[in-house]
Amino acid sequence: MGDAVVIVGAGQAGAQLAMSLRQGGHAGPIRMVSDEPYLPYQRPPLSKKFLAEYRDPDSLFLRPESFWRDHHVQCELGAAAGEIRPKERRVLLRNGREIPYGTLALATGTSARALPVPGVDLPGVFSLRRIDDVVALRPAITAAERIVIVGGGYIGLEVAAVVRTEGRSVTVLEAEDRVLKRVAGPATSDFFDRYHRQHGVDIRLGARLVAIEADGRALRTRLTPDDALAADLVLVATGARANDDLAAAAGLTCQDGIMVDEFARTSAPDIFAIGDCTRFPSRRYGRRLRLESVQNAIDQAKAAAAVILGKPQPYDPVPWFWSDQYDIKLQIAGLAEGYEAVGTVGDPGAAHFSVEYRRGGRLIAVDAVNDARAHMLARRRIAEETAAVAETART
After folding, report:
1. Region 22-32: what's the mean pLDDT?
2. CA dist 115 → 213, 226, 246 (Å)
3. What are the b/e assignments for 359-392, b being 16+ CB within 10 Å?
4. 8 Å CB contact between 235 and 147
5. Please, what is the average pLDDT of the chain?
6. Using the 8-state DSSP alphabet, how is residue 348 labeled?
7. Tens-place pLDDT, residues 248-257
8. Are residues 107 and 129 in the same domain?
9. What's the pLDDT tens digit per position in 376-386?
C-alpha cells in the first residue's frame, strides 16, 4: 500500500486532489473517506440557489458516480474517521475498520462555530454547513413567518436574501458595528446594509444575543440589555471552526487549523492537509492564512497533488471569494487588511462599482459589485503588485 493515497474528506478539496492525481498520472489506489453519505459536492450553493430551489442533492455533485468509478477512485461514504496512527500509517474508522495508507491527505473542512448561549440546541434553531442541514432547514423555513438570523456574514446575508425574497419576515442580528466586517471594507458593508434594508430586512447592529428560549411553539431571542424578538425559526450563522481535532489528536501541529507549509505538508511525514481546515504561510501577505473558499480548496489541492507527483510548486495565492444576494454578485479579490488608501470606481447607486484597497502604493484587494471585469483585472493586478513583496520575503 506504499503508493496508496487516502483522502479524509470528500468535499471540494478532497475531490480536486483525487482528480489532479489521476490527471497527473498517479496510478496507485486512491480512496476518499467521508462521514457524509453524499458524493463530493459544491457547498456555496447551500445558502443560495440550493436553499431557494431545494433540488435533489445530486444537483450539487461535482461529478457523477460513474466518474469516480471510471477513474478508479474509491468513495467510502458515510464512514467517519475516528483516529489517525501516523507511525502505523493507518486511519481507523469509527465503525472499527482500518485503512492503511502510503500518503494521507486531510481535507476535513470546517463545522459551524458553536454559539455559547443557552438555547442553541432547542428545536427550531439551525446552522447551515452541509446538505443535511438544508434538508432540515428548508421545510422549517417554508413553515415559518418570522425568521431571526444570528450573524451578518456571507451565509447570514445570503439566507436573508433567499427568505426575504419569499416574503418572510427576516431580522439579522450582527454583534459588530457593520455587516460583512470580517471580509469587506466599510463602503462595501454600507452598500449591502442599505440594500438589505431596502428589501425589508431588519438589521440590528451591535446586537448581543444572550439566550434563545422556547415560547410555546415559537422561540424568543433575548438580547442585551433588555430586548427580545419572537421567531418561528433561528439560524445561527456566526462563522466556522476548522475541523482539526482528528489531526491534533494524532500529534500534528494545529492552531485554529492544521498547520502546513507552502507545499501543504503537515508536521508528520507523508501527511498533507488541504482546504478550509488548513493554516498555511503566505509571503504575499506576510502571515499565515486560513481561507474558507472554493479557490483555496481547489488550488491548494492542486499544490498537494504536485508534491505527491514529484513536481512541487509553492502555494501562495491571491485569494478570491464571492457571494450572491438578491440580484447582486459580490466578488472579492485579495485580502483587505492593513490598507492605507481606499478608492471607489463606478456608481454604488447603480449597484455597479468596485472598491480598491492599497498599501504602500500597491493594490492588495478589490471588492467588485456586479462588475466581473473589475474582479478579473483585480486578480491579475494584485498578483503582479504583491509579487515583489512575496519575492522579498522569500529571499
Report:
1. 96
2. 14, 19, 22
3. beebbbbbbbbbbeebbebbbebbbebbeebbee
4. yes
5. 94
6. G
7. 999 999 999 9
8. no
9. 999 999 999 98
78 C-beta neighbours (distance < 10 Å), count? 11
> Do 19 and 99 sit in the same domain of this protein?
yes
Note whether 182 and 234 are same-domain residues.
Answer: yes
Residues 84-118 have pLDDT tens digits of: 999 999 999 999 999 999 999 999 999 999 899 99
Cell output for 63: 461529478
Q: Are 212 and 117 in contact (CB under 8 A)?
A: yes
Quote the number of domains for the chain: 3
Q: Which DSSP category does 45 fall into?
A: G
Same domain, yes or no, for 129 and 81?
Answer: no
Q: Calculate the CA dihedral of residues 271, 112, 182, 361 and round it to 10 degrees.
A: 20
Residue 111 grid coordinates: 463545522
Domain of residue 382 covers 327-394
Task: Give φ, ψ of 77 to 5 degrees.
Answer: -95, 150
Q: Which of 220, 238, 256 marks a domain boundary?
A: 238
In this structure, are 44 and 160 located in the same domain?
Answer: no
- Specify the pTM: 0.93
Residue at which a domain ends, from 308, 342, 358: 308
User: CA distances (Å), 135 to each of 46, 140, 335, in order?
Assistant: 10, 9, 33
Please give the grid coordinates belonging to residue 291: 481561507
How big is the chain, counted in residues?
395
How high is the pLDDT of residue 388?
Answer: 62
Is residue 124 domain-shared with residue 84, that is, in the same domain?
no
Q: For residue 217, what pLDDT is reported?
A: 82
Residue 1 has a pLDDT of 47
DSSP 58-90: GGGBSS-HHHHHHTTEEEETT--EEEEETTTTE
Residue 142 to residue 146: CA distance in whole angstroms: 11
Nearest to 128 by CA among 236, 11, 10: 236
CA–CA distance, 91 with 79 (Å, rounded to integer): 11
* Predicted local confidence at residue 242, as pLDDT: 97
DSSP code, position 254 = B
* pLDDT in the model for residue 392: 56
